[in-house]
Every structure is written in structure tokens, then in C-alpha cells.
Amino acid sequence: MQEKIKNLIYTLVREYYKEKFGSQKFVPGETHIPASGKSFGDEELVKMTEAVLDGWWTEGRFAAEFESSLAKFLGVKNCITTNSGSSANLLAVSALTSVHLGKRRLNPGDEVITIAAGFPTTINPLILHRLVPVFVDIDLHTFNIDVDKMKKMVSKKTKAVFMPHNLGNPFNLDEVRKLCRKHKLWLIEDCCDALGSKYRGRQVGSFGDLSTFSFYAAHHITTGEGGAVATNNAKLAAIVRSFRDWGREYWFRTGEDKKQDKGLGAAKRGKLPADYEAKFIFSEIGYNLRLTDMQAALGVVQLGKLKGFIEHRKDLYKRLRKEVAPFGKFFSFQEAEKNSDPSWFGFLITLKSGCPFTRKEFVDYLHGKNIGTRMLLAGNLTKQPYMQTYKVPFRKDDLKNTDYVLKNSFWIGVHPGIDQPRFVYMSQVLREFLDKKLEIKMKK
């Protein structure tokens, strides 16, 4: 009887999807085209409903399936899900401060190399652990870190590199890893905007000591809110799980009392009774940062669609590039890093010096036509209000290119929600603006 009822519910969910989401029509100029957004079908709603009907709700069977499938896709041994990409970044940095790493742990005052043309949650965990961000300028071809400048910014205090693959474009992993090996630095890959991007045929996220991912609604796949940390290092995986699960000494699957690992080796350091329950021995200053099984159920379906999502992003990026290529005199575009195959997060446009119109004019025109845009994340993090308010200590180079991007760059979407009619409309609007501005310029 239960199966019959569930099947009826699933049928109604599919009908609801068709009624609510399936009949939406695109009206040029009226329907908003966001710069980023999710794409889903009735399968996602059914799978989440299945998780709800399980009555479990916290991390469970779908989370285990999602972790396993994601690890297989990335080609890594360990994948730990969490409730957001920001939490994934926090967990990765926290793990490297663990006393269980001995002399290699990060300590207050240690420096971590990164970029300022990124997102705050790459930097904020460093600040919370009293580490010092070292901001290196970007290259205006790839919009990733300038590796030559990076080499000059290494000091005796430098202990790690925490680097995003900007807008899905892999950074120069050959040079960055070479630098890390030379100076014995930890490497964290921030892949929150780059799921599915490849470098030398391997998935990004499989190169660093740790890597982080976001499954927020704007990213390559979504669990609503959600994220993950990946690693091939079993010890780091255990530490990440500990920080994620209240700081537990041992890893237990939710709802189970059987240990899943040998622990961090700190149980004997406490002053607890010898017979104290292992599930309540805590070795780290941890949190509860797990995701729910409903989120994981959504992720399971989304992950099955990832290959198609990636191809859509790559194809749309290529087509947009072709559309605006005739106007290359006025713009520079993000070039794929050598040896890489990006799963683009957005289509970045940077106005060249001497362009006959401003970024504001361009962006305002697009907004007026209901086409969403975004700046290149925080632009220059060193100039953000909170960095001034809290007098955050950091070190930087001149950040000349970062400042140029702050004033002259923006991006538009390439996500799967942009279908052929939306692409045609976007192309028309782009050309209308450019033709109009250039005609005015010629008349002058």
C-alpha cells in the first residue's frame, strides 16, 4: 500500500512540475535572463520527495551516494559533503590548522597566497584563523594568478596556496604545483565555479591537497545550498570530517554507532573516563556543517546531468565569443589557460582602454533589456568595506590588473537555462548596443 501511495505522489509531483515550470514561455525583453541559474526537471522534484518520504531528512543514504558519485567523477578517493561552498572553504582551511598535522599545521601569522580578484569566502577562513592573505595580481588573458608575480611573493612565512579557478578557467596548475613542491606549501583548489573543468585531461579538484566545491543554485549543479571538500589524503579527509561533525575524534555515519575510521589519535589526550562513549569524544573545535538528505537527493540527479550542463556552457561560451569577435578592438576576453578545457561559469567582457563607451553604459543597457550581468566577483578584495572596517592584515603586490578589472570587467551567463531563443535575443541585444555606440562614435 505504501508503494502505491508513493507512486501516486510521484505522479502528482510530475504533473505539478509540468503545470508550474513546464509551460513557462520566453518573452523577449520581458522574461529576465539571469547571469547564473539552476536547470532542473521533474526528476529532481521526485527524488527530493523520495527523500522527504523516507522520514530521515538529515545526512543519509542519498548523501552517501552523492559523495561516492562525485568522488568517482573527480577521480579522488575522498569526498565530504557540506552545507555550502563557503563551509567547504572553511573546512579546508580549518583542516590545515589541525594540531594533528604536527609541524605542517598552519599557525596564526602564516601566509597564504591567493588573488584579490576573487570571492570573499576564499579569504574569510584565512582571516578567521588569523592567517595572512598574500594577494597576487592576475593575468589579463586568463584572469587567473600571474605565476611570475606569484613566485616573487613567496616568503619564509608562506605556508599554503588557496586559489580559485576563476570563472571556471583552470589556473596554471603546472607552475603552481611546482612552486608548492619547491617550498613545501599546501595547495587548496577553490573549484566552486569550476566543476567539470579539466587540466591536462584531469578534473580540477584532483590536483591539490584539498579542493572545494559549491552547489549553490547559481553553480554548475545545485543542491539548493551545499558544497563538498575533496582530497586523496586519508588523514586530511578524517580531519575535515571531524571539523564538519562537531569536532568528533571518530567518524560515524549519521544514525549509526559503528566507527567508520580509526580516529585522529587524540582520544587518550583527554581526561575522560576509560569507558566513555566514543561518539562523544571531541578532538577538534568543530561545527555541524552537514547537508540534508533532501539536498543530496537533488545533487544525485543533478550530477547525472552534469556532462550535458558542461557541454552547454562550453558551446554557449564559444557562440557568444563568435558573436562579439568583430568588436575585439574594444574588448578583451578570458582565454583558456594552456593545457586546459574550461567548464565556463560565465562569459567575461573587459573593456579595453579607449573604448568609446563605459562599462556602466553597457551594463545598464543590458539590464534595461532584462539581461542579467555580474561583476568579476569582489573585483579587488583589498578595497572591500569589511577589509577596511576590521583592519584585516594582508600583503599584496601592485594589483594593477586587478584594479583594471575592478573598473572595466563584467560577465553574462552561459548556464543551461539559456536556450536557443534566449541566446538569439542576447546576441541581438549585444549587437544593437555595439552597433548603436559605434555608429555614434563614427558620426562624431
From TrEMBL:
Q: Which residues form the signal peptide?
A: none
MF annotations from Gene Ontology: pyridoxal phosphate binding; transaminase activity
SUPFAM superfamilies associated with the record? PLP-dependent transferases
Task: For this entry, list what GO says about its biological process.
Answer: polysaccharide biosynthetic process
Instruction: Report which superkingdom the organism of origin falls in.
Output: Bacteria
Which keywords accompany this UniProt record? Pyridoxal phosphate
Q: Which InterPro entries match?
A: DegT/StrS_aminotransferase, PyrdxlP-dep_Trfase, PyrdxlP-dep_Trfase_major, PyrdxlP-dep_Trfase_small
Reported cofactor(s)? pyridoxal 5'-phosphate
Q: What PANTHER family has UniProt attached to this entry?
A: DTDP-4-AMINO-4,6-DIDEOXYGALACTOSE TRANSAMINASE, TRANSAMINASE
- Its family? Belongs to the DegT/DnrJ/EryC1 family.
UniProt name for this protein: Lipopolysaccharide biosynthesis protein RfbH
Q: Which organism is it from?
A: Candidatus Harrisonbacteria bacterium RIFCSPLOWO2_02_FULL_41_13b
